[in-house]
Amino acid sequence: LKIAEMLVENQDDLLVPVNQVAHVREDNKLDHALLVLTNVGFSVIPVLDNQSQLKGLISMPAIIRAVTGIKDIHFEKLNEIEVRDIMDTEIASLREPYELEDILHHVVSNAFVSIVNKEGIFQGIITRSGILKGTNRIAHE
Amino acid sequence: LKIAEMLVENQDDLLVPVNQVAHVREDNKLDHALLVLTNVGFSVIPVLDNQSQLKGLISMPAIIRAVTGIKDIHFEKLNEIEVRDIMDTEIASLREPYELEDILHHVVSNAFVSIVNKEGIFQGIITRSGILKGTNRIAHE
Ligand SMILES: Nc1ncnc2c1ncn2[C@@H]1O[C@@H]2COP(=O)(O)O[C@H]3[C@@H](O)[C@H](n4cnc5c(N)ncnc54)O[C@@H]3COP(=O)(O)O[C@H]2[C@H]1O
Ligand SMILES: Nc1ncnc2c1ncn2[C@@H]1O[C@@H]2COP(=O)(O)O[C@H]3[C@@H](O)[C@H](n4cnc5c(N)ncnc54)O[C@@H]3COP(=O)(O)O[C@H]2[C@H]1O
User: Fold this and answer.
1) Is the Cβ atom of B98 under 6 angstroms away from ligand 2?
2) Nearest CB to A4 within list B65, B111, B139
3) B60 at interface of A, judged by CB pairs closer than 8 A
4) For the segment A47-87, what is each residue's pLDDT rounded down to a tens digit?
5) Atom of ligand 1 minimally distant from the CA of A40
6) Atom of ligand 2 minimally distant from the CA of A44
7) What tens digit of pLDDT does each residue of B23-59 get?
8) Separation of alpha carbons A62 and B99, rounded Å
9) What percent of chain B has pLDDT over 70?
């Protein structure tokens, strides 16, 4: 896909590596996950297991919904439920080696794409910002 | 900016009109805002005043931070604080008539751009999805 490759420069810089990606563990409780999301400010972050495999995605609306009853939000239940019970398991992800074309396809409907290696170990994410920064530089020439 | 105009087809379809945009009023209390955000699932939404002027942006992390103390989250305080007290007033917005070039500039660092008319009345938003859908169609030809 020549246009795509022309549009996005510096493909090596695209990956936000795992050590820069905010994430939680699937066995964390929701109060911990809520605190992480509140502190980092990202709306959706990956969920990993204890072997660094990608298991799901967690967001604040999902957490609040999990403790919302008919009349009230039951915040005291946050330390009773684990992330794995409510995480979204439908993840936009690609296994290495990936094509830029697949990234572009995913970011049309997903704010970021998760990257795993051949063994399924989480490597990092590629974000819409990363793609748009590369594209905008070309568009301004 | 010829490349930009070539890249994004159907510019008339880009605007998500005001009646399709989830928003809250600046005099709403935080418990109402939290409920709206939980129900619609969007991470950040516009805040309007009673004359439909754009006043700010509200997100869940901002709401949770506003009631988080040293040791605990004080959820009971949600009905004591108004949206206007904590909303983000730094808004990526454009006044009509706007150039596509300005939209492209904004979406590099903002997930959406808010559009207001000459009188400052909120008209709707343009999202990264909208831009990327138009771009991807071209890139696949
Ligand atoms: N702390 C910050 N500093 C500067 N700009 C910020 C920011 N937090 C958010 N933004 C801006 O808001 C966009 C949407 O962020 P959101 O958290 O909803 O959605 C994010 C989040 O769900 C995820 N993400 C990005 N970076 C992450 C990281 N380091 N760790 C975990 N998740 C990340 O990827 C999505 C898309 O990110 P993208 O950069 O394309 O788009 C970001 C970026 O343009
Ligand atoms: N209900 C849903 N159905 C389908 N896809 C969904 C969805 N909710 C979120 N997404 C996907 O996740 C992206 C990030 O959504 P977020 O709510 O963080 O960030 C959103 C949200 O802050 C705002 N936004 C979008 N549509 C909105 C609306 N109708 N009302 C209020 N805010 C909206 O613009 C940002 C960027 O939106 P964008 O569409 O580019 O990107 C969306 C879209 O690709």
Assistant:
1) no
2) B139
3) yes
4) 999 999 999 999 999 999 999 988 888 999 999 999 999 99
5) 1
6) 18
7) 999 999 999 999 999 999 999 999 999 999 999 999 9
8) 37
9) 89
Least Cα distance to B31 among A43, A80, A66, A64 occurs for A64
The DSSP-derived string for A25-71 is ETTSBHHHHHHHHHHH--SEEEEE-TT-BEEEEEEHHHHHHHTB-SS
Angle subtended at Cα B12 by Cα A136 and Cα B4, rounded to the nearest 5 degrees: 20
Amino acid letter, A141: E
Query: Which of B132, B49, B25 lies closest to A7, judged by CA?
Result: B132
- Give me the residues of chain A with pLDDT under 50, please: 1
Query: Is the Cβ of B92 closer than 8 Å to some Cβ of chain A?
Result: no
Under DSSP, the state recorded for A9 is -
Q: Is the pLDDT of residue B86 over 70?
A: yes
> DSSP assignment of B104-116, as one string?
HHHHHH-SEEEEE
For residue A64 and ligand 2, the question of a CB distance below 6 A is answered with no
